């Protein structure tokens, strides 16, 4: 490891020089040695910076080796396409246009199969369409004579480039054909102003198109055959990971609130990390959307068919985010300075933990449904459990007012800060409303979270219908809920009725 | 307008054909007329679709005319660069490489000045660096002889392409040099495998670089001189707009809750639209980040210097979002089915509205600070007001427990749904805790929002320091708070003390 002190020393020396100060720490040293020392400091500083950068890069690659593999894939594809220059027959075949194959590989090769396919197809069709149109315009320009021709070409470039640029602003086109529109403009302007004769143009168009097709095929093959990264799989992983994180956060938040006084530091840290997992959910919208856009270009892979309802994952993501907003608010409210006294917290800790764990087990079950791609017959039971826990929490709160005795206005005015009222020995307690504010807020937000989780349930069930998930085998169902002997359908109806009665 | 019925009729007919059904609505019509009708329906359907698409595009352009202007700018830049092909001396000057100027314009011209500059500079420096390196490698390959040469070139392409691709994953490089890294790979592979002699390479490199510089200069000039769209200005607009929306949402949410029974439908709709403005704040992270990335490439423009602290706007954006999360939770909680009775709502409506309006006026004042780019001496006063309103709200809640009389457990069990308890004539009221749950939640969330608004205040004050905002002229301050005779600084100290005492 490089000595950090030395680097700091070098920096200090340079600052002194910049200040124009004549004092030095080592007056006996000559100018030469000082310059040498300064240079040394500078180099050491640079090496330090480089070292840090390399270390960060190494960590990045170590954390996600697929990124490193992707880099090697790009390198390999480029090296292969470069061979065109060295193999005489191939080079002659495409008439020196091999450059376009190299260029295609560089700009088209993306991280995921979906984005590579999106760019490849857009490039091929954009080039084809624009080339076709441009040859037409070129032919008209030539027929119109030498004077009018350039104006026709110029005008058509202006109009089509403007129109294609505008189309890139339209959301539905931007999502699918953004790159194609750019390639369209590029090819159209290149071909229409190239000034070649039409017969030579056909030759050129043929060569250009064939080199582009060679490049795209190579990209598609390499990205699909060597350690493929599927955008659909990525989206699926993000969603299931977010579900797990949300469930852990919910558990963690509630547990942290009620265990804040006890517990070792290590386990606290661990639970703190867990309970902040929802923050990932808050900020994953952009990546979810781009993955869903790319996923629809992908062929069947793994457990996903072509035409898998990827858009539904976005709905699930949105419903997860709406839960995460509430967890964020919950986290803020229960960490505020206004805390409920311990004895009151203890009184509702069991039921709060039950609501929290029931809610999170619904989310975990949903994550399981998506992970196994099998409909769960358990989910209605769990939703019912969650709703009954919420209802129980409410009933518990309803019984709390009996704890209050009227505080006279006089007393309240005189002791507004009298928060630490302890339970008296008479069994009747005076609890200021302020003390139960955090608990009531917790209850309210947990209720809201539970109702939003039902939104997630709906979204996942819609996905299960759209993607035709099969029901989970019965033996697993029974293993999960050994006491529940009701037939799933009847059970579902039963639970729905219960839920309806409760709401 | 095209007749919609006709289109539907055509569709119906086609469905019938697809079903293989022999029944028709018009049995007297022959096969020919049916085919004709079908074709008519098909065409009308297509025209309808096209019409809808065009109408949507027109609306898009009408809503943001700058997009249309951008399209014309791209068209104009491309037409100008195409002239190179028609002007003999210019064309000869760049030796047929004019293609690269066209290509540069197409791929480099972006919507905002910042993104255009980012791509231009990345393109120029990426090309320059890669060309330089590639010529070096090429020279070494030639020196190594015909057998070893291709291996050296292939190996260097593989290594450098892999390394450059990997660098695109490193966040700090991705934010600034993503495009440059791609251009580096492109140029390096094109030059190093091109198979030219080194002296010809220098010629080519010179031409390539000059055409690229011509293209980039044209892009920069057009994007900066004709109706420029500055990324910095956009970011600034997003942030101030989000502040206004957040303030309006806060006002709207609280007002809507307390006015839900009265008011005309029109004003309700209006306030509903206002109160949902915070949803924009929730989803603006991605656009804020990309704007901030581009803004740092921009020169001084309007009221912004080069090196304006754009990153601070991201911090303000993040703090606004953290408020928006709470408003989202608030919106969910107060719209839930569990509602407080009207007479209780009335009792806290004044103070809640006060907290809401005081909080929103802090946000509005902050928006004003950012809009006018002048420090406000009013802000500390407003924050003080907000905190005192929050404290008043708490005191108000503290006085509420005196409203309760103990409910016997028996009674509570028998009438769990007895929510509509009216105030009795004796002056002592029985209010179940469940009835005040929404009010307590409102109080809690408003308190949390107020404390998060202080985070926004900190972020804006940091911006004011970093960007060296000047203090607002005194006359304006006095006009805003005519009753406040305290000197701003003393006043500030005073408020800080008050705040400290309260917290």
Automatic annotation (TrEMBL), chains A, B:
Task: Give the bilayer topology.
Answer: Multi-pass membrane protein
**Top-level taxon of origin:** Eukaryota
Where does the UniProt entry say this protein principally localizes? membrane
Query: What is one GO biological process annotated to this record?
Result: malate transport
Its GO CC terms?
Answer: membrane
Stretches with biased composition (Basic and acidic residues): 488-497
Keywords from the UniProt entry: Ion channel, Ion transport, Membrane, Transmembrane, Transmembrane helix, Transport
Localization per record: Membrane
Region of interest (Disordered), ranges: 471-503
Entry's family note: Belongs to the aromatic acid exporter (TC 2.A.85) family.
Q: What is this protein called?
A: Aluminum-activated malate transporter 10
Species name for this entry?
Answer: Rhamnella rubrinervis
